[in-house]
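Per your request, structure below.
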């Protein structure tokens, strides 16, 4: 026979435990922003100091101007690459665009914009990542080619990649350069599988690095005017092998090295400034994205000081194109930032707005909000259904003025459309 007192007691204890769990998890969830869109910065003050992309100014001492993107999968952030780059070219004499993409693949773009064969679509596909096979990237590449068609030789634009995760085009151009300088390419060809367009399984990382370093030396000995760039194809392949075989090697540290190399290349051409584009998590000046330690922007800021100028971006709302888990299948999903500045920009009626942090005086109420840590949107190349219940998975915590020199805010970002390319 059931004990009614026991039954009543059980009915009381179980709900109490659930309530306690809900209260605790609710407090934690609230700390990470919950499902809300967050507080709003002072709208009137924001309106005083915000402007458009054409209003962007950079200090005279800035030599590396970096543009971040809060997501890789939104048309507006892709479009900003061209819009901001135009300002840098027309107002600040920038003559190079460096992207978070394959160095060798970006060489294919550089050849195209300087009169090479093919199409803008094919050039975009060579960069090496699906996120750049978009209408917006094709427009950027087409604009650069059109600019170069009428530019003087010393004013022509150049396109670089500072990543090292792909090998196909780096090997192609390294082999081409090695043959051009008369180097023996027997060993170089022995570590490559031409059918797979990848390193052969019969060679290991140590052997590959040894062969690549030897070829690099041969190219540098040639004294060819283009030897520094040709040798860097070997550098990118060596970096790729170190990245894959040595857990102590940081991709961001290698990317920072490559950006500094690009800067030196451009200075040799007579251009003192370069423009760099990558995810916010790579261009930020402090902190460590996703627990990775110092990121590229950290390292560049350490090395260059105020010669490094970083522009972050954020969204109020985004419908973003992202891969599903670890697969290549891409789907679109809705996210809200928790950024009070992005919310203020939206409430001001801006589709896109620029805020120069140095233009906001200490007397403004907005200054205090700029100097406080907030949650901002940050969507990478990954999606999990858990993100719908845990917004902290696509938000990062930081002080805007410590991360960037200024930010661009997009109120309602639309997904990119990935263009399928048949090579």
């Amino acid at each position: 026979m059931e004990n009614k007192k026991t039954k009543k007691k059980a009915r009381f204890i179980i709900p109490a435990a659930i309530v306690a769990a809900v209260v605790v998890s609710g407090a934690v969830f609230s700390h990470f922003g919950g499902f809300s869109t967050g507080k709003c910065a002072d709208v009137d003050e924001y309106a005083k100091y915000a402007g458009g992309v054409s209003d962007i100014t950079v200090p005279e001492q800035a030599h590396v101007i970096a543009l971040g993107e809060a997501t890789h999968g939104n048309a507006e952030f892709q479009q900003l690459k061209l819009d901001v780059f135009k300002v840098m070219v027309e107002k600040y004499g920038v003559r190079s665009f460096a992207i978070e993409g394959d160095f060798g693949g970006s060489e294919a773009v550089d050849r195209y914009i300087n009169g090479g064969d093919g199409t803008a679509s094919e050039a975009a596909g060579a960069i090496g990542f699906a996120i750049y096979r978009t209408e917006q990237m094709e427009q950027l590449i087409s604009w650069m080619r059109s600019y170069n068609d009428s530019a003087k030789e010393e004013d022509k634009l150049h396109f670089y990649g500072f990543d090292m995760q792909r090998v196909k085009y780096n090997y192609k151009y390294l082999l081409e350069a090695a043959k051009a300088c008369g180097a023996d390419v027997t060993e170089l060809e022995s570590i490559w599988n031409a059918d797979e367009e990848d390193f052969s399984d019969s060679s290991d990382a140590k052997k590959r690095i040894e062969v690549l370093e030897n070829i690099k030396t041969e190219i540098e000995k040639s004294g060819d005017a283009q030897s520094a760039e040709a040798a860097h194809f070997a550098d990118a392949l060596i970096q790729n092998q170190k990245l894959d075989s040595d857990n102590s090697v940081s991709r961001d540290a290698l990317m920072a090295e490559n950006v500094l190399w690009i800067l030196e290349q451009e200075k040799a051409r007579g251009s003192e400034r370069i423009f760099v584009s990558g995810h916010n998590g790579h261009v930020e000046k402090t902190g460590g994205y996703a627990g990775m330690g110092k990121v590229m922007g950290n390292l560049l800021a350490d090395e260059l000081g105020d010669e490094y100028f970083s522009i972050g971006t954020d969204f109020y709302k985004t419908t973003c194109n992202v891969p599903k888990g670890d697969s290549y299948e891409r789907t679109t999903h809705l996210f809200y930032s928790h950024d009070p500045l992005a919310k203020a920009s939206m409430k001001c009626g801006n589709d896109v707005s620029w805020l120069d942090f140095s233009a906001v005086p200490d007397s403004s109420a907005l200054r205090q909000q700029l100097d406080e840590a907030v949650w901002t949107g940050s969507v990478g190349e990954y999606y999990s259904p858990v993100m719908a219940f845990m917004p902290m998975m696509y938000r990062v915590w930081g002080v805007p003025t410590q991360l960037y020199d200024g930010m661009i805010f997009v109120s309602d970002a639309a997904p990119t459309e990935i263009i399928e390319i048949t090579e």
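The radius of gyration is 25 Å.

Regards,
D.
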